[in-house]
Design goal:
Strand content: 25-35%
CATH architecture of the largest domain: Alpha-Beta Complex
Largest sheet: 7 strands, mixed
Number of helices: 9
Structural class: alpha/beta
CATH class of the largest domain: Alpha Beta
Bound molecules: NADP nicotinamide-adenine-dinucleotide phosphate
Radius of gyration: 19 Å
Amino acid sequence: MLSMKVVDIERFGGSDVLKMDELPLPTPKEHEVLVKVHAAGVNPVDYKIRAGHYPAVKEDALPYVLGRDAAGDVIAVGPEVTKFRIGEYVFGMPGIRRGAYAEYVLLKENEAAHVPAELDYISAAAVPLAALTAWQGLFRHGRLRAGQSVLIHGGSGGVGHFAIQFAKARGAQVITTVAAEHTEFARKLGADRIIDYKARRFEDEVENLDMVFDLIGDETQDRSFGCIKRGGVLVSTLNEPSQERAAERGIRACRYTVEESGEDLSEIGRLIDAGLVKPHISRVFSFDQAPEAQDFLEKTHPEGKVVLAVDAMEMETPVTSIP
Ligand SMILES: NC(=O)c1ccc[n+]([C@@H]2O[C@H](COP(=O)([O-])OP(=O)(O)OC[C@H]3O[C@@H](n4cnc5c(N)ncnc54)[C@H](OP(=O)(O)O)[C@@H]3O)[C@@H](O)[C@H]2O)c1
């Protein structure tokens, strides 16, 4: 039986529970494609799942293969697939039970898109989950339009660095909170106004906003209500916002979970092709360094994204960065 290497966990814990394993090569059914993974993105959800802190992955899902971002080549297609052919270069966010820290992964046809011509495998793997989260948060849940104002909390991270670029590309006015050392990065991403969240209280500096995009939660979310105008919106990737407070202030408030979407990824790809958006990668780790990659993301809060070069050849790819 053909097999593949994966990085999985058999129990929840620190990065030392991640281990290299061997699993049978899956066969694509119906609307699935089998992708030879060249690179896989690393996201906070990966270390949250690994630690047992993510409600959708409980003990009964173990052993569990990590990874929600894949970029690679289609090597086999299911009988119902119409959108992709063998040999094509794709990226996508696999459903939560199909990990991308693996030499091969199954993607459903509607979870994947063709990779923009501009992107190599490493840069492509940096896109799916973080960019989809930013896209769906700003435009599907926030309904952000040209000319509106948005405060993006956590603009220096994976989701935030896409959110700043998407909001600017849409013609919005963008304010972002980052730590002092990320000010220059946020400026290069196009933010109109940058607030050092450790030195200043953002609620003393901004008011009457159309939207707050909360990538931090808790106290940051609580303090954000007062910055939003009547009719505005608070969208969070973390805590469920208080509906009582939202009603008192005449705003809409929601928490959402990112959804797999090849359609949204194609739209994002068009912005990348047009040169309006670029993934920024802080560091690439080799496949056997998955524990180091997760620790690096969790403990150092790098700018933009961290990627695993699943295919060793990809370690040679120069890291893409915001100029
Ligand atoms: N609901 C969903 O579907 C969904 C999807 C994607 C992500 N998420 C969650 O959303 C959060 C952001 O994701 P991500 O991928 O962007 O994470 P990330 O890459 O770790 O970025 C988070 C950034 O926030 C900064 N930060 C920390 N405290 C801050 C504060 N008080 N104000 C402003 N910035 C602050 C951090 O840098 P410094 O500490 O250096 O400032 C870091 O750069 C994570 O908790 C993630 O799990 C949820």
